Amino acid sequence: MTRTLTPLLAALLLATAPMVHAAPLAEAAAPAASAEEKVVYHINDASVARVAMNNVNNHLSASPNAKIVVVTHGKGIDFLLNDAKDDKGEFAPVVAGLKEKGVDFRVCRNTLKARKLEDSAVIMEAKVVPSGVAEIGMLQAKEGYVYLKP
Q1: How many angstroms separate the CA atoms of 44 and 50, rounded?
Q2: Suppose 44 and one of 76, 120, 122, 137 were both cysteines; which one would form an S-S bond, judging by CB atoms 3.0 to 4.6 Å apart?
């Protein structure tokens, strides 16, 4: 009887062992309530720029302390070029207003080079970075940003 009971007892202990550790692992995986909210908005098509700026404004209304970075490349840089506008008007005042709220705007230098544009073609509220997609990857992988694509 002892021989039968020992393997049964060992199997029972092994079967319940993960349950003992499940709660602490789940708690460790959950983000701290005080963790800073960091979001990167990815824009590679300027036709969604106006909607994206509305999204960012709404985001800040709901979460005023969120740290938001807007990264653009490809056709997405167009709204951050000097004198950019659409049928609703110029983008510069909207971008400036968001910049005052702490939003960072970043433009891909690879796109500028491909389109034979200098850094000076970009409005002063935006920063030129070497690569838009690399910037998004770095923000996610190294700085803990979540990704949103309007």
Answers
A1: 13
A2: 76
Cross-strand bridge partners of residue 86: 89
**Looking up tokens 């500028």, which residue turns up?**
112
Tell me how far apart the alpha carbons of residues 121 and 25 are, in angstroms, rounded to a whole number: 50
Instruction: Residues 38-148: name the CATH superfamily.
Output: DsrEFH-like (3.40.1260.10)
